[in-house]
Amino acid sequence: MVANIKDKAVIAGVANTKFSKDSGVSELSLAAQAIKGACDDAGIHPSEIDGMATFTMDTNDEIEVARALGCGGLTFWGRSHYGGGAATGSLHQAVMAVSTGMAECVAVFRALNGRSGHRFSSGVSGAITTADAIHWGWYMPYGLLTPASWVAMFTQRWMKLTGISKDAFYEVAHATREYAVNNPNAAFYGRSFDRAEYDAARKIADPLQLFDCCQETDGGSAIIVTTPERARDMKKPGVAVRGIAQASAPDQEQMTSFYREEFAAIPEMEIAAKNVYEMSGLTPDDVDAAVIYDAFSPIVLWQIEAWNFCGFGESGDFVLDGALRPGGRLPCNTHGGQLSEAYIHGVNGIVEATRLVRGESLNQPKKNIEHALVTSGVGIPTGGAILGKLD
Amino acid sequence: MTPEEQKAFEDKIYAFKGRKVCEATPAKDPVNATMIRHWAEAMGDTNPAYTNTEWAEKSARGKTIAPPAMLYVWNQQGITAASERASNAQSELVQLFNDYGFTGVLGTNVKQEYFKEAAPGDQVFMEMVIDNISERKNTARGAGYFHETVATFSNQSGEKLGTQSFRVLKFIPQDQPAAAAADDARLEVPTRIPSPRGHDNGWWWEAVDKGKVMIQRCSNCQTLRHPPRPMCGECQSMEWDSVESKLDGEVLSHTELHHPKIPGYQYPLVCAVIKLGEGTNIVSNVVGCEPSDVHIGMRVKGKVEQVDEKNMLPQFYPA
Amino acid sequence: MSDYKTLRFADVNLGDKLPALEIPITAALVVGGALATRDYEPVHHDKSAAQAAGLPDVFMNILTSQGLMTRFATDWSGPEAVVKSLDIKLGAPNLPGMVMTVTGEVTALDKSNGVVDVAVQGENNIWGMHMQGTVQLALPEAG
User: How far apart are the first and last CA of chain A?
Assistant: First the structure.
């Protein structure tokens, strides 16, 4: 049993920068813009920020961000590791800081020039000799160098075990794209695709093709996390963190946990799910919408199973029933996801989950969403959270 | 070379302008389906006009044709070229260039025009003349002369099939050590990215360099582990030795990599997670079969191979 | 036979782009291409000869480049097209391990004889331009 910090921390402000393929500005600028946007959303001045949380992968030093924004001093900063596994991980840092009183107003951020700067698709390289590079050394010489290739290896086996076909991948990718079509800040605003285009798209790493893969984006996203008391005085209705968890599982590697008894599985996400449900006192039936980390289309399916919306091997039928669509059982990635809005390492997903609960999501504006799930990346140490309305 | 020497040399080479390299000479073989198919396979050219008789008979042409780009191929001497090459105007010209230090050779342009498509059964005749020799040029490769040969191709009925003009630079290779060294660095062929080697993994890669794939074993509880780590996760012992894998394996999963293509890697490229007979899993490549033949549950047998200039790696073949 | 479509002259517009073709350069392609064109120059099949000539590995012969360029053009046009000419300027060598991307664009149309000019370039991912030039194709009239 993990410690219970249910409803001890509240999201009071969220924002994204403009997303693009070439921001023309520094990553520091993107971070500052995103946090300023989140402050405006919450109706606070940046000087009220006293804590920061981000990814180890983020290049922006907290103190530089603080100086750029005019935050003043900080009493807390913390970073979360493992790429997209840090999406709710950085939120987790902020929630812990606020719930323990280490800070009262924490800015969670992630800002990157993911397209015009370093691109994930360019693969890992052997130019450095850290422990990290030694890990990649078991894969690089064979050509297994990119996130798509690592995920493809899991996917191929998972398809064999479950019999789930690319029909389900298409449904995930297409449902997500249809949401982006309505989102002016999405990369694929106004641009749909059909099954023929999906099937004809460039092969990346079997069985993944182009539309199964997220984009690379320049942009930033930020979230202001504060106490329930202060949140009640801010501009927007607060969104409480009902439950949150981080998890890694035995024999965990970063994207390459190929040495488990059955590796076509994400036990770390199952642990996170169990702990989040336990902390929040909620069940899958209480979750009305979700933002499920979608660096690649099949990983959404695995997570639907890990969070118990259906049983193992049933996610294909679940999505093919239209569950992810606007009127479905679990409207999902309603901003267009990372597949079609922007790849901000999942933090734009926390922004969307907040908006879902507030009733501000572009694609679910009138629907009453009591609880929204948001998750971090898979194949790595990961996590998730359930957000709900602040009482 | 003094101006006088250069003038004397140029008088000699320009005398070759207009000289015949060969009279209309028949190719060793008539145009034939076998060589066409061999060519089409090598080029990956699936044009049915070349190799699909059934299609071709119903096409506007009514028969298969030779790929136009094979025009010059029919008269190539093949492997006997070196021993059978008769002295002719071209070989004399080349020899003259070489004697004066213009040993470098670089084809720069080739232009072919096609007037009539050749078909199986046709006999191709080629005649060739030395058409032009340029003035001395200073090129990036070094000082030299461009010379152009023009070949004319005809068939057994005397009909013209096409022409070819081929421009070649004969040059004095630059003798500048610094520039050459810089060039060498630029010309280095990319290889696969090797693993960095540190305390915990260096020994494993050194064994691979010697042709062996090792599996780390806890000296205390005998548990095998891969990839190597400093401590046994079962009993926390830091003492270990290793056993050599027999490299009998089974594919647990696989993926064919399509995009992006990384310099130094040969595609098609298949990566797989392989369960070794000893019980540990390893990631490697599956080679020696079509990528589409690789499947989960496939039995494979590995061996350590030199995969490029820099890397020894275990590679797995269908068992 | 409708399995293989051939473009009609009227189907083609100035500026039309041909579908790009990615060709992985393998030792098999370099050596196999040389032998299929009966080119036994040692630099195309013997690495030590290629190194003596200043290159790190065997490299593609010209006749293979010619073959690949016409293949690229007729893959697009279809098999009833008649290749009228091929004009290539050669650049950096193609060596095993490289990937050559071939692209092309329609640059001229001659109504009088149904001939289209396709400008083609083949660029490898390491040293850049391997070949550039023009393929002329005579396309059938409509119908």
Answer: 25
